[in-house]
Amino acid sequence: MKIHHLTVDEALHSLRSGPEGLAESEVRRSLAEFGPNRVEQLRRESLVLRFLKGFAHFFALILWVAAGLAFVAEFSEPGKGMGMLGLAILGVILLNGLFSFWQEYRAEKAIAALERLLPHQVKVLREGKVLAIPAQDVVPGDVILLEEGDDIPADCRLIEAFGVRVNNATVTGEARALVFATAMHTEFGKIAHLTQTTGEMLSPLQKEIIRLSRLVALLASGLGVVFFFIGQALGLSFWENFIFAIGIIVANVPEGLLPTVTLALAVDLGTDMLPALGLGTEKPDPRIMQRPPRPLSGSLMLRAYLFLGGMEAVAAMAAFFYVLHGAGWQYGQMLPHDDPLYLQATTACLSAIIVMQVVNVFLCRSDRDSVLSRGFFNNKLILWGIAAEIALILLIDYTSWGNQVFGTAPISIDVWLFVVPFALGMLVLEELRKWAARKFF
After folding, report:
1. Cα separation of the two ends of the chain
2. Considering the chain, what percentage of its residues have pLDDT values greater than 90?
3. pTM given for the model
4. pLDDT at 266
5. Residue 21 to residue 23: CA distance in whole angstroms
6. In a 3-state reduction of DSSP, which class is residue 167?
7. Buried b or exposed e, range 330-344, using 16+ CB within 10 angstroms
8. How crowded is residue 213: how many other Cβ atoms within 10 Å of its Cβ?
């Protein structure tokens, strides 16, 4: 039976206490049994080791290999932009490693923040006397005296109160409370324990993410191999073909970057981060708990990679060939990597991807509800993310700095207008899929 189900006398008796508090002998026994009332810090790996691990996990290793191959290609055939590609990949590795370390560092700071919430001094009743003792000396069975503004040092059950209200852990009014759990046995201590062990104990969601990530890596590697042989069949040079295959692999791993079908490179981490964070702040569907668990059927992967991803790929490649054919390019004609027409075509490809991503952000707010039911302006972070995404692609497309760094060239307004029907088409098709999901499933 939980302590709040007991009467006051029963609760005091269960903890070997009484109306006048604990006897000193019982205090010594409890302190020896339960230890000091403080948040214990578990022994963990040093921050330096955890920092280095951020650069040595599975996907980071893929990126290291890709960067190394890019530098080898630059050494073998200088002047084709492979060195810039290698530097960009190293930049993504660095950003990912720093972000992972920042999360670890925040966890360390969370423990210190929890400790600051605990009071330093507490008034307790022991053997009928009111004593002021350090909060870490409080033990189960202690009767503590609370006044307005006091912080609560442990898990307590009120046994006497006068006009008491509790706001989080601060009291107004006056009360006497019986301590029934201290230190890491309190709800507060359990939170501290979870904060320190989340990286060591994998939740079912984390396990599923790992499984999904490995599946994505296998899929990405398979695509890279397929495109490598396609390039060989088309007569592309070995290094261009090889780096393109690596780009396909890197583009599809979660911590990768998004190269276009050529050396024109944009860091997808920069364009996608804020919209993705915005999606993470979406309010949950109030009906979500009324639905059965989603089966492990791979439907999420099919929707992301084959349905929405497929439409994005079609739009990107259509924009690429639209620019080429508009300038009189013929199939089989090989263009140098620094040819202005080639740069414009790859810029059109990248820009089309960004346009489709903007639409995709709104579509991904729910896998069943219409985008119209969610509204367009109630998630400020998504709007800021889209603004940043648009600003970045305009800098890449229309500034000399962006052209030089990313190997792009300005494109005309008709290219943007060409992409709009593809974005509207993706919107309509996804709305039809959602309607079917609501009606039949």
Report:
1. 44
2. 11
3. 0.53
4. 39
5. 7
6. strand
7. eeeeeeebeeebbbb
8. 16
